[in-house]
Design goal:
mainly alpha; Arp2/3 complex 21 kDa subunit ARPC3; Hypothetical protein af1432; four-stranded mixed beta sheet; two-stranded antiparallel sheet; disordered C terminus
């Protein structure tokens, strides 16, 4: 049994480890899962940053306490005024008059019972014990012998009995209460009389018609003085009996009155005080009043855990939908919106980091308001660096990604500031402005120029917002304009400091980084100049060709030029196997098989990528190094192999003589491929006239295009035409003609003598226009 349990536990442990390993594999290896995980993480973090927590909830105060800090309402809210509500409820309850039930049947019942009693005594003048008991039951009272005798005496005199019944009947026509003094105390404002027979109610203001039970008895006793044949003692006994018979016909209905008063209280709606967003609830050092305590309670309820969780859940859902829809829209509809997982991670870190920065700035603004009360805290918001994210994304990635980033960021900023459309528009316009003016940032002053333009746009937005709100040109507007103007330069300063950090953390190659790499004294370029001088000069010319062509088609000319400098650094490892570095030495390929020569040529691509990684040139340059030959055919050695092919031994496979690729994926990589091939071919021109240069350029571009090497980049036929024109112009400048100055006569004679001795070699054939000939790659 123990062994079975152990095996079961071991199985559970193994199952748990396998699930954990599966999750690890899914999250850390699958790109789609990584993107979804990143989206969820960003949505959760932003939701909990935006939702007020912790210090946003004011402390507990009682009336008379001293406030420890300023507390402002983060949003519009209605605060219940409990004191005023209680007063209104109390007034509503007091307005309900006491309810008295009037039963007219009480008088008739008493007189009828007395009348029936007299009738019974007339029929049985001397009742027995049973009849006496029956009489007591009928009257509802107990009778002594003396009282029985008085009744028998009145029954014997029917006119006297009738007079007594009529007297009682007349008295009972009045509204009689049990305690007149208590009734008069509670019914000063009037009473509500409800007839229990008709169920009708009426308000009785005059209470003079109401008498007490004592008054009713007095009236009966007074009337009974008219009865004859009764002694004083008998009258006294009769009065006692009548006091037992009399009943109040007007009674106070306490339960119904309380019910109606409770309904009156409940009918009163709570009295609410409106607190506007940004309204100062209590200032630091101020004595807290009861009204302020109620407002602080409402703020605490607003920031309670349950409500915060609901708000966070809603905000999380909005963020999830907004970011996922924006990303999918960009992927499907914007051709240059192609961020990979590294780019998405960079944007996520920027997004979250900016929100943390803005949230901290809000706290600082609240603190500054206490020190500078003449400046509203919302005025400081216009100095916030909302445009930093879009500027960074534009510098590191491209304008299309920056557009999607700026739109998404502005929308969520609006949520952070309590659905503030003005702030959202301010952030959006600033992001677009900053992102636009940092394009092709090839020097640091570009950032400050962008900051200047952003400052001017911020001022314009402040003015527009003021006019939309219908406000005049007050001091707060000038403060806002000043902070907006400063905000532009704050963005420039932050971007200047953050760009090197982004380059280091995410291994990006920005234009600013390219400027540093363009320095020809970098270690790898100096090594290239020493180890492979021919390749070094070839790279410089390719750089000039590529930069001019990229400028013509609207690509990044700085990237094209710098990438051209480094595209052949792999030749440093074996420089003498490339024709531009051989010079007067023997061509080493003469002793190698064509396949081996092709492998050596192809190896410079891989070795160049490795050296780029070692020198931290950035992924952009590494990709261009890998793509600058695409999958082109090394035609010289392929043809040589075909010529040496022995059909009986082996078949020459063309794939063995093609570079491993990939093909150029960007316009800059394609431009470098074309410039590389054309510069190499231009070296073979014996007489590089403009016409021959133009023919050579067009031939090389056509061959590369037909070979399909440009299938995966975005160059158009119009771009190829403009690139060709650019190459022609640059090459014409390189191979320009000089004036042949005549030499002295004696030197001309010496040259003629030498020619006669050595013979004329004008029959030599010009070199072929092939980039791959003799190991040139």
């Amino acid at each position: 049994m123990t062994g079975k349990t152990d095996r079961k536990q071991e199985g559970n442990v193994r199952k748990g480890k396998s699930v954990f390993a599966f999750m690890n594999r899914q999250i850390f290896t699958d790109s789609a899962t990584q993107r979804k995980f990143l989206l969820l993480l960003v949505s959760i973090l932003i939701a909990f940053i935006v939702i007020p927590k912790g210090s946003f909830i004011p402390g507990f105060y009682r009336p008379g306490d001293i406030a420890q800090r300023n507390v402002k309402a983060p949003r519009d809210l209605l605060v219940p005024d409990e004191a005023l509500t209680e007063k209104k409820q109390r007034d509503a309850a007091d307005a309900v008059l006491p309810l008295y039930d009037y039963d007219p049947r009480t008088g008739r019942d008493v007189t009828e019972r007395l009348k029936h009693g007299f009738d019974m005594l007339r029929k049985l003048p001397e009742p027995g014990l049973a009849q006496r008991h029956e009489l007591e039951t009928l009257l509802g009272i107990s009778l002594s012998d003396a009282e029985m005798a008085v009744l028998q005496q009145l029954a014997a005199q029917s006119d006297q009995a009738q007079l007594l019944v009529q007297t009682l009947q007349q008295v009972m026509l009045n509204q009689i209460v049990g305690n007149l003094q208590l009734f008069q105390t509670g019914g000063e404002r009037g009473i509500v009389v409800r007839n229990l027979v008709t169920r009708e109610e009426r308000v009785a203001q005059g209470l003079d018609q109401v008498i007490g039970i004592g008054d009713a008895l007095d009236r009966v006793a007074e009337k009974s003085e008219q009865l004859t044949g009764l002694s004083a003692a008998d009258r006294k006994l009769l009065t006692v009996q009548l006091s037992k018979l009399l009943r109040p016909n007007l009674t106070y209905n306490q339960s119904e009155t309380e019910t109606r008063r409770q309904q009156g209280r409940q009918a009163v709606k709570p009295v609410l005080m409106q607190v506007k967003k940004g309204e100062m609830v209590v200032r630091e050092g101020e004595r807290v009043t009861e009204e302020q305590v109620n407002k602080l309670k409402a703020l605490r309820a607003l920031g309670s855990d349950q409500m915060s969780l609901r708000m966070a859940a809603g905000l999380f859902l909005i963020l999830l939908l907004l970011l996922s829809v924006a990303h999918r829209y960009g992927r499907r509809n914007i051709s240059k919106y192609r961020p990979d997982n590294r780019d998405l991670l960079f944007m996520a870190v920027t997004f979250v980091g900016l929100f943390i920065l803005v949230k901290l700035a809000i706290f600082i603004c609240s603190a500054l308001e206490g020190s500078f009360p003449y400046i509203e805290s919302s005025t400081y918001y216009y100095a916030f660096p909302f445009a930093v994210g879009a500027m960074l994304v534009r510098i590191v990635l491209n304008s299309e990604v920056a557009l999607v980033f700026g739109l998404s960021f502005a929308m969520v900023i609006g949520l952070l500031f309590g659905d503030n459309l003005h702030i959202a528009l301010f952030a959006l316009v600033g992001s677009l402005t900053g992102g636009h003016w940092v394009r092709h940032c090839i020097q640091r002053t570009t950032l400050y120029q962008a900051g200047w333009r952003l400052s001017m746009v911020n001022v314009g937005m402040v003015l527009a917002t003021q006019l939309i709100a219908g406000r005049g040109f007050d001091m707060q507007m000038f403060y806002k304009a000043g902070f907006g103007f400063a905000g532009g330069f704050v963005c420039a300063l932050l971007v200047t400091g953050l760009v090197p950090l982004v380059e280091t953390l995410f291994k990006y190659t920005t234009n600013i980084k390219l400027l540093e790499l363009a320095n020809m004294n970098t270690p790898v370029l100096r090594e290239l100049m020493i180890q492979a001088p021919g390749t070094y000069h070839h790279s410089i010319i390719v750089g000039n060709l590529a930069e001019a062509a990229a400028e013509t088609i609207g690509a990044n000319p700085l990237l094209a030029r710098v990438a051209a400098y480094y595209h052949d650094i792999g030749k440093i490892r074996k420089p003498l196997y490339f024709v531009e570095n051989i010079g007067t030495q023997e061509n080493r390929h003469n002793k190698l098989s064509p396949s081996m020569s092709a492998l050596i040529l192809m190896s410079h691509v891989k070795e160049g990528a490795d050296m780029a990684r070692e020198n931290k040139l950035g992924q952009t340059l590494i990709d261009i190094i890998r793509q600058h030959h695409g999958t082109a055919l090394i035609k010289f050695f392929y043809d040589k192999a075909k010529n040496q092919e022995d059909p009986g031994v082996q078949q020459i496979n063309e794939r063995d003589y093609r570079y491993p690729g990939p093909k150029p994926q960007t316009r800059e990589a394609a431009v470098i491929m074309l410039a590389d091939a054309i510069e190499a071919a231009s070296r073979t021109l014996a007489d590089p006239t403009p016409a021959r240069i133009q023919g050579m350029v067009q031939k090389i571009i056509n061959n590369i295009f037909i070979d399909g090497q440009l299938d995966e980049c975005e160059l158009t036929l119009k771009d190829l035409h403009n690139i060709a024109k650019s190459f022609n112009r640059i090459l014409a400048g390189i191979f320009h003609h000089r004036i042949d100055y005549p030499e002295p006569v004696h030197k001309e004679r010496e040259k003629e003598t030498v020619k006669k001795k050595n013979g004329d070699d004008s029959h030599r054939e010009p070199p072929k226009e092939s980039k791959d000939s003799g190991g040139n790659a």
